[in-house]
Amino acid sequence: VLDGAGLDIDFHLLSPKGETLVFDERKSDGVHTVETEDGDYMFCFDNTFSTISEKVIFFELILDNMGEDGEDQEDWKKYVTGTDLLDMKLEDILESINSVKARLSKSVQIQTLLRAFEARDRNIQESNFDRVNFWSMVNLGVMVVVSAVQVYMLKSLFEDKRKSRT
Questions:
Q1: What span, in angstroms and rounded, lies between the C-alpha atoms of 163 and 166?
Q2: What is the tens place of the pLDDT at every residue in 75-106?
Q3: DSSP category for residue 38
Q4: Which residues of 83-117 are buried (b: 16+ CB within 10 A; e: fewer)?
Q5: pLDDT for 11-59, tens place per residue?
Q6: What pTM value is reported for the model?
Q7: Phi, psi of 25 (to 5 degrees)
Q8: CA 61, 66, 67: angle at the middle one, nearest 5?
Q9: d(Cα 72, Cα 77) in Å, to the nearest integer?
Q10: Which uninterrupted H or E stretch holds 4?
């Protein structure tokens, strides 16, 4: 939850069979890893316990091993001939490229998550800034009223209360 009262929300994740895989109540953040099967999954962010206040949420779906059937990776091998003379096999190069790709995608995911945390923290800081400004103005108003009352009281102490006859 990036913004909203309490920074909490309910989360449900249902499998294609209708079984509850994940159920979190009033959590501000969470990371869930699920082994999937074929079918449609349903996830729900529920804010019914706090219908008065709206929430801003961030979520990201990361699907690992999508489209890596092995057939596509093996297609390139039939076009390559005479690779036995190379010191480094093409399989090693492919392994290195896949490793770099996986690490790069993990870096992108972490940066996205850090941006979401930064946005949440910025919203909290702006809310605190507004609160501090409000109470500072209230404090300033009270100080002005108190100083005016003190000036009035001091003047009244030094007034001549006797009636003067001329």
A1: 10
A2: 655 555 555 555 557 777 788 888 899 889 88
A3: S
A4: eeeeeeeeeeeeeeeeeeeeeeeeeeeeeeeeebe
A5: 888 888 888 888 888 887 777 778 888 888 888 888 887 777 788 887 8
A6: 0.47
A7: -110, 130
A8: 150
A9: 10
A10: strand 3-4
The terminus-to-terminus CA distance of the chain in angstroms comes to 79
- Cα four-point dihedral sign 87, 90, 92, 98: positive
Specify the pLDDT at position 131.
94
| CA–CA dist 135, 130 (Å, integer) | 9
Instruction: Tell me how many degrees the CA angle 106-112-118 measures, rounded to the nearest 5.
Output: 135
CA distance 47 to 26: 9
Domain layout of the chain by residue ranges: 1-63, 99-158
Query: Is the separation of the CB atoms in 11 and 22 below 8 Å?
Result: yes
